[in-house]
Amino acid sequence: MVGGEAAAAVEELVSGVRQAADFAEQFRAYSESEKQWKARMEFILRHLPDYRDPPDGGGRLDQLLSLSMVWANHLFLGCSYNKDLLDKVMEMADGIEVEDLPQFTTRSELMKKHQS
Fold this sequence. Notes:
Blueprint: H1 2-25, H2 34-47, H3 60-77, H4 83-92, H5 107-115
Helix pairs in contact: 2-3, 3-4
């Protein structure tokens, strides 16, 4: 019967993953590409257990969604933010692999080239 118990455990795990993905889907922005959403959803799902709102509210989920947008905007759009904030979201995203990211040149880099 061990095989049946293992199959049931796997089915329960798969069901939980589907529910989490379905829950996260409501937070997809209309303008996000599939690639951007897949990366941001992985960020959200990875940290969702730590950011669930307590029964009295508290906005923890809103904080997670905001952090996920900061990370995605930095990665895909080249937006810059406060160093401490960027350090936090980059640490949270450690291990999330995104292929073919756009390359951005910062204003500081452009100014250095122009002055040389």
